[in-house]
Amino acid sequence: xxxxxxxxxxxxxxxxxxxxxxxxxxxxxxxxxxxxxxxxxxxxxxxxxxxxxxxxxxxxxxxxxxxxxxxxxxxxxxxxxxxxxxxxxxxxxxxxxxxxxxxxxxxxxxxxxxxxxxxxxxxxxxxxxxxxxxxxxxxxxxxxxxxxx
Length: 149
Description:
By secondary structure, the chain is an alpha+beta fold. The chain has helices at residues 2-22, 32-45, and strands at 50-51, 56-59, 65-72, 78-84, 90-96, 106-110, 113-118, 124-133, 141-148. Strands 1, 2, 4, 6, 7 and 9 form a six-stranded antiparallel beta sheet that branches. It has a three-stranded antiparallel beta sheet with strand order 3-8-5, with no helix packed on it.
């Protein structure tokens, strides 16, 4: 009886190993643009801001503007952080209301990232407009994150 149980355990172990080998391999991916944005966000997190886990990212033609919409709430304070993975990128970031009026109150910069702070005057949809310009990369990768309190 004992050899049968040992073969059963060996068979189960072999089946488990085969299943693990057959699974697709997971690859770690580091988003350098997001890392740059989060580096700029760190001092604000220490001041009580909550960074949303979700963020926008992609590629954009160097020098071309991109717009992202966000629902913001009166009474909250927001920081938006834009990062780029290109070494020599220039970043411009602004937040506008439905009429196109620019609303941010403060700007912060480090190499590879820019942030703007906004205190929305009303609850509603706002546009975050940014431009990533790189002399070295035709379509630089960008990431846009935000924090609130």
